[in-house]
């Protein structure tokens, strides 16, 4: 898959998660010529990282980017308008009930780090299977258990409270490789392969930037900590982060590992 100047700009603009979208597209659509107006569905698109990158590579694609959150779609709509993109349509939609799409509609379906938040993941996978054309391909992105933020939050909670984190973190809800494959096969996908891919997040210059309050995975953990102990949470988090991700100087960028799975399957 050749990179265009616009594609390179998108990688820079949307940060390190774009790298996983590139890998998902390589593993599915690849470099082969595509028929005119082939169809892509990007489920739980967020702010549209995969859709935006796909639109820059596959000019002849019809792309639908959907998300349950109107706020996410609003942000993506603004980007589409600013960039003059014509081959992406957006839709506010529940990925577990995509009633507006007929069976056998799309050539490719994707959900990059979105399906992991679904209350019923298999139901979402079954909907993606339904709307794919025969022999269509799906790619699902999920963080692994040792993804930097999930592991830092777990260790911080355990050190603060003296017991393991009692809640499942949605960001690692599909971190079991065998379970990931089982759920895809249960939804009807065949020839399922789970690829392990690690990228590095290099944009944080302070440890405080890693603890992004307002980010749902962070807030989910903080919200279950008693008020009298919350005041110690930040310092414990920073101490653990400094030991795990040391840097030689105060100006050195912090290199954070982000291992993920990308599950590939066929209808």
Which terms would index this structure?
single chain; 267 residues; alpha/beta; Rossmann fold; 2 domains; disordered N terminus; methyltransferase activity; SAM-dependent_MTases_sf; Methyltransferase domain-containing protein
What does this structure look like?
There is one protein chain. The chain is of the alpha/beta class and 267 residues long. It has two domains: 5-143 and 174-203 and 256-266, Vaccinia Virus protein VP39 (Rossmann fold); 146-167 and 206-250. 40% of the residues lie in helices and 21% in strands. The protein has eleven helices and seven strands. It has helices at residues 5-14, 18-28, 49-57, 70-83, 121-131, 148-161, 177-186, 207-210, 216-222, 227-230, 233-244; strands at 39-42, 62-67, 88-92, 106-112, 132-143, 190-201, 256-266. It has a seven-stranded mixed beta sheet. β1 (39-42), α3 (49-57) and β2 form a beta-alpha-beta unit. The radius of gyration is 19 Å and the shape is globular. The chain starts with a helix and ends with a strand.
Topology:
Elements: H1 5-14, H2 18-28, E1 39-42, H3 49-57, E2 62-67, H4 70-83, E3 88-92, E4 106-112, H5 121-131, E5 132-143, H6 148-161, H7 177-186, E6 190-201, H8 207-210, H9 216-222, H10 227-230, H11 233-244, E7 256-266
Parallel strand pairs: 1-2, 1-4, 2-3, 4-5
Antiparallel strand pairs: 5-7, 6-7
Helix pairs in contact: 1-3, 2-3, 6-11
Brief summary:
With 267 residues, the chain is α/β, with parallel strands linked by helices. It contains eleven helices and seven strands. Strands 3-2-1-4-5-7-6 form a seven-stranded mixed beta sheet.
